[in-house]
Amino acid sequence: MSSPEHGPVLTGAQPSVGKHVMALVEGLVRDADALRIKVDALPGGGRVIDAGINVPGGIEAGRRITEICMGGLGTATFNTREAHWPLIINVHSTHPVVACLASQYAGWSLSHGEGKDAFHALGSGPGRALAVKEPLYKELGYKDDAQHAVLVLEVDRQPPAEVLAKIRRDCNVPDDGVTLILTPTRSLAGTVQVVGRVLEVALHKVHALGFPLQQIVDGSASAPIAPPAPDFLNAMGRTNDAILFGGVAQLYVDCEDDAAADLAQKLPSSASRDYGRPFAEVFKEVKYDFYKIDPMLFAPARVVVSNLRTGKSFRAGQINTELLAKSFGEGK
């Protein structure tokens, strides 16, 4: 990881995720009826987009929201990779550190209240880079200056007034300068936008392993779209397993070959002690405490690290169709 004595990860002028994303957000709003989503006014100003709570939403809405999460600096497309689980999301970014870690990563804790009525969400999207509440931003050396905050929340209800006030205050935007996109995990759009984090999951583990983010030049990744589950635990488990057992990432780096080879060996999910069972089972066993799960588990199943300095590529890990089938409820 970078440290203060080595300076920030990002140097020189960087693109604004908040500015690049607005055309995508306005397109989402314009096509709301076609996408089966709903746009409403937020109390006090701004707007909220329901992508699966009280409306059906859909796969295409999830694809577009994936690109919004990446701050307009990444693309998400669909294709088929193999017949067993045919629909695949492919994501790519020429600015993977900014798009994935400074925007897409769900790292801003937004909570209010206690007990059964408590609200808790992890905010993702370009609005995070306005609030810069996470230590990660100091390390990256990135702060956005857009005038509109766009956040994606993986929730099944609208945040309370106290959370809205916090977002406006911490992002330093006008009351009407907020767009919230709500994507329940159990919904089609929610499933797609979570699986669409496959490149971000790879970048997050790269960061956790201490590999210098400055040496990441470009990146792409893909994963199968999991069938949604009606209950939160299995829905969350399936979206994680789509990446852990079916995700493939290719990172383009500029470093010594030994470092590239080491990264490839350590990066796949199978390098974790908790690998080998559907995520819902692992989560239940630790009594739903994320902090008891090995953080090295969260990674794509298979990786390729291509070194631009030498032209060599290093690969590790493998897709596990058996565990995907078990997680995705095949035959049940």
From TrEMBL:
Role description: Catalyzes the hydrolysis of methenyl-H(4)MPT(+) to 5-formyl-H(4)MPT.
Designated name of the protein: Methenyltetrahydromethanopterin cyclohydrolase
Pathway annotation from the record: One-carbon metabolism; formaldehyde degradation; formate from formaldehyde (H(4)MPT route): step 3/5
Keywords: Cytoplasm, Hydrolase, One-carbon metabolism
Similarity section: Belongs to the MCH family.
Reactions catalysed according to its record: 5,10-methenyl-5,6,7,8-tetrahydromethanopterin + H2O = N(5)-formyl-5,6,7,8-tetrahydromethanopterin + H(+)
Gene Ontology annotations for the cellular component aspect, listed alphabetically: cytoplasm
GO biological process, one term: formaldehyde catabolic process
Organism: Methyloversatilis universalis (strain ATCC BAA-1314 / DSM 25237 / JCM 13912 / CCUG 52030 / FAM5)
Pfam name, any one: MCH
EC number from the UniProt entry: 3.5.4.27
UniProt cross-references to NCBIfam families, sorted A to Z: one_C_mch
Primary localisation category: cytoplasm
Gene of this entry: mch
Subcellular location: Cytoplasm
HAMAP family attached to this UniProt entry: McH
GO molecular function, one term: methenyltetrahydromethanopterin cyclohydrolase activity
